Structure to design on (56 residues):
């Protein structure tokens, strides 16, 4: 999230239309967030499966 906030402040520099880059970076951020969430859930699933395999 830190890189996202830095990128957002950089796009809001005067002399440039800040509206488009911000919405664009937001889309990119959401895409990245979604990808990480999927990865995390897959990892969690694997982790839970490992626990159950060890338990049985």
């Amino acid at each position: 999230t830190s890189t996202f906030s830095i990128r957002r402040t950089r796009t809001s520099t005067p002399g440039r239309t800040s509206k488009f880059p911000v919405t664009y970076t937001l889309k990119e951020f959401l895409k990245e967030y979604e990808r990480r969430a999927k990865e995390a859930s897959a990892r969690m699933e694997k982790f839970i499966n490992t626990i159950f395999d060890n338990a049985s």
